[in-house]
Design goal:
This protein has an 8-stranded parallel beta barrel with strand order 1-2-4-5-6-7-8-9, surrounded by 4 helices. It has a single domain, classed as Alpha-Beta Barrel (TIM Barrel), CATH 3.20.20.190. The longest helix has 17 residues. It is of the alpha/beta class. The N and C termini lie close together (9 Å).
Length: 279
């Protein structure tokens, strides 16, 4: 089970160093080293049952799947309709150079030539990223995405838990989801793993009692509902509070002062160390 040790204020890289590198790629994760205490990533299930690191349900925004679909005789752009062998051949990095989603290339914060030299980036399996994380002692927040049916959700949870076991990563991962039934599956299948409830728009009724019954170790509210008066009450119940996604440094300091244990951010500094955040 993941546990906080020396650091009680986690800087969590949202999909890696997302502001300056293509999200959920190995180059974004590598660039996060030394700049954060934990990396957040997203997982979905391929058609042949491999847990893959990708945020969107569809491949069109962050890959070249649109232009390569005919090559694989694919008529769908949904991640779960592609086998891992096909997914692993996609370029999931070059889109960043074309769209510059945070304007960091234009501002000179991200170097186009260095980014170009690292392309193409391939869509990674969760197991590969876990191996990398264990080697580099980097804790991970693994967000388990909704797969559409309880059966598919259960299959994804089982594969995630299996990959964590195979890579011996149990002590440096937290499993999170907006679908709290998925978290119940995680607790049933792997009660030794830490879990976190993601929430946006509004808090569940009787929040602390709800979280306690859910059996989670952490609550991850959107910044828009991160009530500064509520944070210490949740902390007093022994539950971590990690807030997403907070790119304003003044707001980050405000949340930490209120007792938040971590913040998810797209922008990273260079004075962090992951070695002191878990035991």
């Amino acid at each position: 089970m993941f546990s906080l040790c020396k650091s009680q204020q986690l800087i969590i890289a949202h999909r890696g160093y997302r502001a300056c590198f293509p999200e959920n790629t190995l180059c974004a994760f590598i660039a996060s080293l030394g700049r954060c205490d934990m990396i957040e990533l997203d997982v979905r299930l391929s058609a042949d049952g491999v847990a893959v690191v990708f945020h969107d349900e569809l491949l069109c925004r962050c890959s070249d799947a649109v232009v390569r679909a005919s090559e694989f005789d694919q008529h769908s752009l949904a991640v779960h309709d592609w086998c891992f062998g096909q997914l692993s051949l996609l370029d999931v990095g070059s889109w960043f150079l074309d769209s510059d989603p945070f304007g960091t290339i234009d501002q000179g914060l991200a170097e186009r030539k260095k980014l170009q030299a690292s392309m193409p980036q391939r869509l990674p399996s969760l197991r590969r990223v876990l191996h990398w994380a264990v080697t580099n002692r980097m804790p991970l927040n693994i967000e388990i995405k909704e797969m559409g049916t309880p059966q598919h959700n259960e299959a994804l949870v089982a594969e995630v838990v299996h990959d964590i076991s195979v890579t011996a990563a149990e002590r440096q991962v937290v499993l999170s989801s907006f679908n709290h039934d998925i978290l119940r599956m995680c607790r049933w299948l792997a009660p030794h793993l830490s879990t976190a409830a993601l929430q946006e728009r509004e808090h569940p009724p009787d929040l602390i009692l709800y979280l306690q019954k859910l059996g989670v170790d952490a609550y991850h509210p959107a910044d828009g509902i991160a009530d500064l008066d509520l944070i210490p009450l949740i902390r007093s119940a022994g539950i971590w509070v990690n807030v997403f996604t907070v790119n304003d440094t003044a707001r980050q300091k405000q949340l930490f002062k209120a007792g938040a244990t971590g913040i998810f951010t797209d922008y990273l500094e260079t004075n962090r160390s992951a070695d002191s955040t878990f035991c």
